Amino acid sequence: MELLVKVLRNTGLYHLTWQNGVMIAVGGLFIWLAIRKKMEPYELLPIGIGIILGNLPLARLMNPPGDIQQSGILGVIFHYTLYYHNLLPPLIFLCLGAMTDFGPLIANPKTLLLGAAAQMGIYAAFWGAILLGFDIREAASIGIIGGADGPTTIYTSAQLAPHILGITAVCAYTYMALVPFIQPPIMRALTTLKERQIVMRQLRPVSKTERIVFPVFAAIVIILLVPLSAPLIGMFMVGNLLRESGVVPRLADVAQNALMNAVTIFLMLAIGAWMSAENVFHIRTLKIMGLGFAAFAVGTAGGILFAKFLNLFLKEKINPLIGSAGVSAVPMAARISQHLGQQANPKNFLLMHAMGPNVAGVIGSAVAAGIFLSILR
Amino acid sequence: MGKETPVTAPIVGKVVKVLTKEGDRVKENDEIATIEAMKMEMPIVAPVSGVVKQINIQPGQVIQADTVIALIEQD
Predict the structure, then answer these.
(1) Number of H helices, E strands in chain A
(2) Considering only CB atoms, which chain A residues are within 8 Å of B40?
(3) Residue of B nearest to A101 (CA)
(4) Considering the domain boundaries, does residue A305 fall inside one?
């Protein structure tokens, strides 16, 4: 009898709390969204199953490295690649660089400004977080959600506020999946039909030399100005050079596919497993979700309004709809610019124009992260 | 004989569907073909109303920006 009780007490079921139950349901919801709704499946599916595994009591999957045979596989991944050394986000940036076409940005460098303006959401959410009582390091990690860039958010949170890492990461990825709902109402409200109908001239072709010089030059300039953006920007440009050089197709291919996929599996599982009930069940989680949403909304508005501001000085007007693509969320935000533009005028093709601010937004949020880190670390 | 207006590809992409054939009558803003770029499908529309004289693309083909994909004889 005593033995039976002991066996029962050693089951996870005995230790399962209702909070664990809620989180397991959340994990199930993510899996459903990924499979049924095709919402960011590469992120939400592994995060979903990670959440479920991370909420099964006594499983020790998230145990940090320590005593012999006591560590958990996800705990080791989390500890070594995020909490302690922060390796995975820069690796993702290497892969993203190999997938990024800077052509539209090089052809129309003005769009760099739009990418910068759309980072306004970061600073809005930062100050909002301070007002809601978060400390300055937490506020920076929350603000960076507005960069609409998963790896940048994870990189910043892991350094400044690891205790809210999972929440900020999940906010970034879910809101990115939700940009088709968050952005269009704001974009319509801030533009007139006439502005949305502006047709933009096709971008000039960009030479191979420009494509090769850009990542090298951009890495040097940005890292000299904001040294702590180096892990993200440096790796981003390395990946891009692999792609554009044309002489290492095998390396570019590994970065775009095999490496990206491998890193994604580990990063997303670890983030999911971090979302245990004890890490999530805080009132601050709701505040972070609200602030993250506000950051996306303000960033969208910032990009649009700045494009309209630029138009006051430009002879050849830009369609303000491409401004909102500056929040990053590559390439969803650019697709939304295209979609709304074509709704207003079927002959309008903004996709490539919107890719300029879109990739500029990635650079912009990595730079913002570097600035936060240099002030707060 | 009306003026022949070329329909050009606005963007690099892959042709998903061709929705008109030679001899078809189209109105301005009618969809002529669908192309895909960056996992997004976009309609290419007729710039003018008229009769399709020539179609130069087929599904699956990758087209460069500015390629003439069709000719329309304007009404």
Answers:
(1) 22, 0
(2) 331, 335, 338-339, 351
(3) B38
(4) yes
